[in-house]
């Protein structure tokens, strides 16, 4: 074509650095990934504190890239958000997680909940509520089988719009979890207004819990705050017995982390 060099790259593309070119290739692949069925969900179990009882699992997106192998979201979620592809991918995730939840439901796991992560863009997109409703209907699931995890910054991005959407979702009976709690900038006033059921303490506060007195104080304050607001408290990133003991002692309701269970394909999830 006109303007292209003999290797097929335009001058612009040739002058891009390798990293930019890799991103362009990845974007090209990402556009095709949904159609090619390259996405899959791993599931990480959530456990009730102080018991071996599994109460549900969080769906975590993976991309089986034809050349690069299994990719975690840090490699492509940013790109998916920048390009708006996250809307279609997010719908796929929601449907796939509900399809899996239906299977668990039929296997008698009726008290489990499946948790799905939402990105800010899906949240701004007008069709989220309808999409959730339709997906639950399609799989014949009661709304309380589903937890939607949103980060603080997502919820705070456009507070009034978020509140309206969250109220509709909560009104349907869907569970709302505030993810990565403590890393954002939410005011307590808004937190109080959010119709959330669950607070997830960010992994960053759990990591050095045994050694860092500040982290221990922060976690303990978050638990107290959550209890005052009548929210379930989940700690994520639990990797050691000491962390588990500490978080149990502090009053967390449920725990998630490599110590208790890695994210795995659903068929490998040990049904505790
Ligand atoms: P997140 O929602 O905070 O999910 C927890 C992340 O921590 C997961 O990484 C999980 O594999 C990892 N993790 C769990 N336990 C441990 C632990 O004990 N130690 C350590 N070091 N890490 C642990 P993953 O699967 O790579 O996902 C990263 C992020 O990508 C998620 O963070 C979430 O924000 C985003 N994400 C994942 N799936 C989706 C999705 O379907 N849609 C959207 N919009 N975002 C997603
Ligand atoms: Ca999450
Ligand atoms: Ca998190
Ligand atoms: Ca995180």
Description:
The protein is of the alpha/beta class. It has twelve helices and nine strands. An eight-stranded mixed barrel has the order 1-2-4-5-6-7-8-9, surrounded by four helices. A hairpin with a 3-residue loop joins strand 2 and strand 3 (69-71). Helix 6 (128-138) packs parallel to helix 8. The longest helix has 22 residues, at 85-106. It starts with 10 loop residues before the first helix and ends in a 17-residue tail after the last strand. The mean pLDDT is 90. Bound molecules: ligand C2E and calcium ion (3 copies). Residues 58, 117, 149, 179 line the site of one calcium ion. Residues 23-272 form the EAL domain. This is EAL domain-containing protein.
Compact description:
The protein has 272 residues and is of the alpha/beta class. 44% of the residues lie in helices and 19% in strands.
Largest sheet, spatial ordering of strands: 1-2-4-5-6-7-8-9
Number of helices: 12
- What is the helix/strand order? HHEEEHHEHHEHHEHEHHEHE
State the low-pLDDT regions, or none.
none
Say which molecules are bound, naming each kind only once: ligand C2E, calcium ion
> Shape, please?
globular
Q: Average pLDDT value?
A: 90
Give the terminus-to-terminus CA distance: 59 Å
Helix content: 40-55%
Structural classification? alpha/beta
């Amino acid at each position: 074509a006109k303007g292209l060099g003999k290797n097929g790259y335009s001058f612009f593309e040739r002058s891009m650095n390798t990293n930019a070119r890799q991103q362009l290739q990845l974007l090209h692949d990402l556009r095709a990934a949904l159609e090619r069925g390259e996405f899959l969900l791993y599931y990480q179990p959530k456990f009730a504190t102080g018991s071996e009882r599994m109460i549900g699992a969080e769906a975590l997106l993976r991309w089986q890239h034809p050349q690069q192998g299994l990719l975690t979201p840090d490699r492509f979620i940013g790109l998916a958000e920048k390009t708006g592809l996250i809307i279609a991918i997010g719908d796929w995730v929601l449907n796939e997680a509900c399809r899996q939840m239906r299977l668990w439901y039929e296997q008698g796991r009726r008290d489990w909940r499946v948790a799905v992560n939402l990105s800010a863009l899906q949240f701004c997109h007008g069709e989220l509520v309808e999409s959730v409703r339709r997906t639950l209907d399609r799989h014949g699931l009661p709304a309380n089988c589903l937890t939607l995890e949103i980060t603080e910054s997502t919820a705070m991005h456009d507070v009034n719009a978020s509140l309206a959407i969250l109220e509709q979702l909560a009104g349907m009976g869907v569970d709302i979890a505030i993810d990565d709690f403590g890393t954002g900038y939410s005011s307590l006033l808004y937190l109080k207004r959010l119709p959330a059921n669950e607070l997830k303490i960010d992994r960053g506060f759990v990591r050095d819990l045994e050694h860092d007195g500040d982290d221990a104080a922060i976690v303990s304050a978050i638990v107290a705050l959550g209890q005052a607001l009548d929210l379930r408290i989940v700690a994520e990133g639990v990797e050691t017995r000491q962390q588990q003991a500490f978080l149990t002692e502090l009053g967390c309701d449920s725990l998630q982390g490599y110590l208790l269970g890695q994210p795995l394909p659903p068929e490998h999830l040990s049904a505790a």
